[in-house]
Amino acid sequence: MDERETSGAPGVAIRSSHGWVSWVSEEDVRRVLTWDLVLAAVRRALEGVSRGPNHPSGAVQPLRTHVPAAGRGQMLIMPGFVNEDAALSTKVLQVFPGFHHSYIFLFHPTEGRLQAMIEGDAITEMRTAAASALATMELHPVLESEAHHEIVAVLGAGKQACVHAQVMAHCYKGAKIRIWARRPEAAEALVLQLRSEGICAESSTTVQEAVKDADIINICTGAAISILKGEWVKPGAHVNSIGALRPNCQEMDEALVKSATIYTDSREQALAGAGDIIKTGATITAEIGEVLLGQHAPPKNCTTIFKSLGLGVQDSVCARLVYDRLLAETE
């Protein structure tokens, strides 16, 4: 008899002393996740963070833990719990030379036993881009009656740049995507991939060229010093900043940060690790979860920044979503 039939668990089932545990591959994750599903799940996670841990639909989001490994790399530990989704997990991210991958451990929310070990890179990519998209749609809404097609700049050409371009094209139909990367050949390769998916994309030779007149700017690089200047950003544009997650790092210059209205996924996380905010002394206007809940109304026609730290609760809801969808396939 097939091991999966015996266990009833999705993915590859492993027998432990506490019951069956599923091993879920990256391939299975990508197969069952869609943008609409991830957007909805990440929205619940962000709202849960802003509701707080004691609300029936709230979330528990501790600070991430950094574990240096003798100067060779580091391990990041990102736990989270979202009550509404019964999603309890810990992501372990390994950042070493030549190896940058994550694994999510999903637990039963009331019994505590391990249910699944999930390869986490695809979830990390999609939930990060989904959070940016949710923030963008709240802070830079476009009425369906408007004929204007958004100009979307994406700085970077790696995995996060790719998914940010994809989700922006998904949420803003007809968007024109501009790609800039330090290596022009990487930008061109991403442009070709996006075009093969039916997305309108072109490459830019400089950051300034990419962001000129852009409505939405996504910074998806590993920059430790600012690469985006306020003088290049048109008034009323929206910026998603997903990097510079150390107190001494910065990817936007002080002029931009101090002139914009700033939102984040978690005040606590941002004040502990967002160099763009810490180094400039900028004020956080609200968490994006507060905006999603209708607790804060963003001002119109002003430049906005979503400073994304990436939260364990986002991994939790997506891991639960993957597990439940795979489980349904076995029934």
TrEMBL record:
Listed EC numbers: 1.5.1.1, 1.5.1.25
Origin superkingdom: Eukaryota
Record-linked InterPro entries: NAD(P)-bd_dom_sf (IPR036291), ODC_Mu_crystall (IPR003462), ODC_N (IPR023401)
Any one Gene Ontology cellular component term annotated for this protein: cytoplasm
A Pfam family reported for this protein in Swiss-Prot or TrEMBL: OCD_Mu_crystall
Recorded catalytic activity of this chain's protein: (3R)-1,4-thiomorpholine-3-carboxylate + NAD(+) = 3,4-dehydrothiomorpholine-3-carboxylate + NADH + 2 H(+); (R)-lanthionine ketimine + NADPH + 2 H(+) = (3R,5R)-1,4-thiomorpholine-3,5-dicarboxylate + NADP(+); L-proline + NAD(+) = 1-pyrroline-2-carboxylate + NADH + H(+); (S)-cystathionine ketimine + NADH + 2 H(+) = (3R,5S)-2,3,5,6,7-pentahydro-1,4-thiazepine-3,5-dicarboxylate + NAD(+)
Principal EC category: oxidoreductase
Subunit and interaction comment: Homodimer. Binds the thyroid hormone triiodothyronine (T3); T3 binding inhibits enzymatic activity.
PANTHER family xrefs: KETIMINE REDUCTASE MU-CRYSTALLIN
UniProt family annotation: Belongs to the ornithine cyclodeaminase/mu-crystallin family.
Protein name: Ketimine reductase mu-crystallin
Source species: Penaeus vannamei (Whiteleg shrimp)
Organism taxonomic ancestry: Eukaryota, Metazoa, Ecdysozoa, Arthropoda, Crustacea
